[in-house]
């Protein structure tokens, strides 16, 4: 007997979007044999079911690679001109912000809309814009309240990233690790905090630890559901924590050797990794929306989808099976 399980049905190559449906919808769609290619937003469904998924990974990277050229160019320009130390000038501010502006354009070019399937991309975009404004404030961080304003903008960025990563699965063990890490860092930095930073720094520390926790939990290593985009988001979050920890230690405890280089390399790597995580975010959002009010969990949706799509080794695209699996 056929069981009507809510799942994902992908529209044709021209519309570039995923829609909701049931196995019966899948059946009619399967007859069209419409390929799902990297040109759509249905990137990376459940790689562990396909023996040569690395070919598909290459196709995805070729698709997004050209959009990242401005980022690598602007980062190179920044380190060539200001790799030794920071400056307090308009030109330095422009050079520092341009790589983040490039990532903002990358997220926009990948796709943006006000509908619910682009929720993840919108939150990452808000985080990038807030970070860019925060960077501008920190160029003149010794001016009155500029450092505090920059910290506030980065707090908004961390909140946006954490909200984008979501709270499913909850992963309490990973949360406990980040709580312990945050407590140890705060205990170490507290003697050097004065004035308003006694209140702002702990608040920001909580936000960035929550962001790191949600990025790690989202990967789902032990459920064998990790994807390269989730790994990029996780690596980006951890790099962000390293960058901000270096800033805090240099500010509150002692002068860190090569602090400028460490901070900026890890910061740009962090924003790069988090931005890359938008590549297959539309599929993730469809599954998230469908599993909110359904008995099926995230893994069940992916396993069901894997039963209706196979990887064509010759054309290197996903195609629907000719028939629908009977439950």
From TrEMBL:
Q: Taxonomically, which superkingdom?
A: Eukaryota
Q: Which residues cross the membrane?
A: 89-108, 120-138, 173-189, 201-219, 231-252, 258-279
- Subcellular location(s) of the protein: Membrane
Q: Which keywords does the record carry?
A: Membrane, Transmembrane, Transmembrane helix
Pfam entry (one)? YhhN
Report the protein name in the record.
lysoplasmalogenase
Assigned protein family: Belongs to the TMEM86 family.
User: What is catalysed by this protein?
Assistant: a 1-O-(1Z-alkenyl)-sn-glycero-3-phosphoethanolamine + H2O = a 2,3-saturated aldehyde + sn-glycero-3-phosphoethanolamine; a 1-O-(1Z-alkenyl)-sn-glycero-3-phosphocholine + H2O = a 2,3-saturated aldehyde + sn-glycerol 3-phosphocholine
One of the record's GO cellular component terms: membrane
Predominant localisation class: membrane
Source species of the chain: Pomacea canaliculata (Golden apple snail)
Name the membrane topology term. Multi-pass membrane protein
Which terms does the record give in the GO molecular function aspect? Answer: alkenylglycerophosphocholine hydrolase activity
Q: What is its EC number?
A: 3.3.2.2
């Amino acid at each position: 007997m056929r069981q009507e399980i809510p799942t994902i049905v992908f529209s044709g190559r021209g519309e570039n979007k995923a829609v909701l449906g049931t196995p019966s919808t899948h059946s009619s769609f399967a007859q069209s044999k419409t390929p799902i290619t990297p040109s759509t937003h249905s990137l990376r469904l459940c790689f562990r079911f396909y023996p040569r998924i690395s070919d598909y990974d290459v196709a995805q990277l070729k698709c997004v690679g050209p959009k990242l050229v401005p980022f690598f160019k602007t980062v190179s320009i920044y380190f060539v001109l200001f790799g030794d130390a920071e400056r307090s000038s308009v030109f330095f501010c422009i050079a520092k912000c341009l790589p983040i502006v490039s990532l903002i354009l990358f997220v926009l070019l990948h796709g943006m809309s006000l509908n619910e399937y682009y929720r993840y991309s919108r939150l990452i975009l808000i985080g990038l814009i807030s970070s860019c404004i925060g960077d501008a404030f920190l160029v003149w961080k010794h001016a009155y309240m500029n450092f505090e304003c920059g910290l506030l903008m980065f707090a908004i960025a961390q909140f946006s990233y954490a909200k984008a990563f979501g709270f499913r699965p909850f992963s309490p063990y990973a949360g406990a690790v980040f709580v312990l890490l945050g407590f140890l860092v705060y205990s170490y930095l507290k003697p050097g905090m004065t004035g308003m930073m006694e209140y702002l720094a702990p608040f920001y520390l909580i936000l960035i630890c929550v962001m790191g926790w949600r990025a790690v939990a989202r990967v789902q290593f032990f459920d064998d559901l990790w994807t390269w985009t989730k790994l990029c988001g996780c690596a980006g979050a951890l790099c962000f924590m390293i960058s901000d920890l270096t800033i805090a230690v240099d500010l509150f405890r002692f002068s860190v050797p090569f602090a400028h280089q460490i901070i900026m390399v890890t910061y740009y790597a962090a924003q790069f990794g988090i931005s890359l995580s938008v590549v297959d975010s539309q599929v993730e959002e469809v599954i998230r929306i469908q599993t909110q009010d359904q008995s099926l969990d995230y893994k069940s949706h992916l396993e069901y989808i894997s039963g209706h799509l196979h990887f064509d080794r010759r054309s290197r695209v996903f195609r629907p099976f000719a028939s629908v699996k009977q439950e």
